Amino acid sequence: MKIALDAMGGDHAPAHPVAAAIQALARFPQITRLILVGDEEKIRTELAKHGAEPNDRLHLFPTTQVIAMTDGAVEAVRRKKDSSLCRAVDLVKEGAVDAIVSAGNTGALVAAATIKLRNLPGVDRAGLACPMPSRNGVWILLDAGASVDARPEHLLAYGCMGSIYAHHILGIAKPRVGLLCNGTEEGKGNELTRQSYELLKSAPVHFIGNVEGHGLFEGAADVVACDGFVGNITLKTAEALAKSTFKWIKEEITSNPIRMAGALLARGAFQSIKKKTNADEYGGALLLGVNGICVKAHGSSSVHALFNSLRVACEAVTQQVNPHIVEALAQKPSSPTS
Amino acid sequence: MKIALDAMGGDHAPAHPVAAAIQALARFPQITRLILVGDEEKIRTELAKHGAEPNDRLHLFPTTQVIAMTDGAVEAVRRKKDSSLCRAVDLVKEGAVDAIVSAGNTGALVAAATIKLRNLPGVDRAGLACPMPSRNGVWILLDAGASVDARPEHLLAYGCMGSIYAHHILGIAKPRVGLLCNGTEEGKGNELTRQSYELLKSAPVHFIGNVEGHGLFEGAADVVACDGFVGNITLKTAEALAKSTFKWIKEEITSNPIRMAGALLARGAFQSIKKKTNADEYGGALLLGVNGICVKAHGSSSVHALFNSLRVACEAVTQQVNPHIVEALAQKPSSPTS
User: N or C: which end of chain A has fewer CB within 10 A?
Assistant: First the structure.
């Protein structure tokens, strides 16, 4: 398969994307071509640091513009046609690649993908499906922030698309789909979630009702649907607390030599849980619902995070997530509001 | 001061409320009377376990009904007039006590307080102000779940009331008020937060704009305003992740004797951070905006959590939070939508 990587996207571009590309090519033989899209000179300089240069499997697609993290999404896509992000999406549109990975501006990626690739048949609004840690594995939060407002039929589609992700990529036989809410009882929630509850009840998914924050990390559901505003806050709150907790523990430990000695003996435990709660391990969010595979990596992605994002892109292509979504949504009973 | 404690509220009632009452009376001489409201026989039995009985400072107010955690809020308040929760609120209304603490049904407490005590002048909707941990102290999240839907003028009032809480109870000279959002830039957010942003800009508080999950636990703001749906999910997500992280670390540690030895040496560090991230330490949420001091403790409150909730009630009474709110809201420029 062929993948385009936005080499200028993210806080550490092009260094991290270039390093991740080299790692991914070494690890994933199924990638027959990986195209680094961006500033040619800068990319060649980064490649040289690894003693690498473009070859049969590693291509370079030169572009002249970069979309900044602070650029307005739709305007940036319209104005910066030769940006690495837009050109990478164009490559998907033209069929030159099977997937794109970008750590760039989330809004711009969503806008470019929606405008250029269009939504899949039956999908009104794309959602970012973000893998999150639980006790014994991974659950999917979506929408993690593709759009801020949502209607009940969007949450219905998020539940359906998330179920397909969990089934085909995570290998869960019958994914349990929940609705993120302020309580588990039916009837809890705001107007949006109460209406979405009714739609999900008759959807072709294993809907288990409302789930609240308390159960998320203990595996209450495999897929958790919510609007992008709530999802983004939930995602960032969880990431932030995990990071702060480890930072605070480290500060407490380094304040005392006996504690430091102890921590050294117990470090395997910390490393294991730090890894579990580290967003880098999960490899970015898949933008579900657009007609093409788009993976959004964190803006601050490490090389490892980008490597894992390339892995997610490979899995989504191999598992044919999009054809499965189209098929499943064709079965969806039409909602009263759509 | 006099405080009513709902002895039947919460998962461990009346055992935990009774034990917390005894501890609080020993610790807080300013409590001249603490009234345990609930099933007389059960309360006496619990008191006996501590070798205690009603006395000059510890009173008993017998009631015959209990509002269950699963009861519908408004209906429970209308139907169960002789419930411990309703009678405790009645005591505030009649002026027999200065404050009420309950670990019971959140919705019922909010409904009882709103119906019986009414809102303070200038307040449309009460909000639960929940203390949360940050790097160097505490910040206030509100609304943490008093109501699920909110209008911009409600978020404006939450910001103002939270600022007064932070100033008078947390002792912060000029509390920084932020709006919980999916990004920090002005213009980010959903319709509710974008409109609220405009109102808060001209409010008599130190408004610092949007804050996102990433900054919350590193002290990005002293007060974080949001609607109760988002607030409740944020609160529960944070509580859940903190709990799960420590559980996972413990499981990893106990899987290996060398790690266990190390953890023993470093245990001070864990205990310190576990305490910091433990909701029990913060003592429940103050229902800001009603004409009376109402503290909502967690349904699963430990004795220590209820003890801390009684402390919060004492502080709110001593610091005259409600008169300060009335005064501040009288200065608030009228909003275009109210």
Answer: C
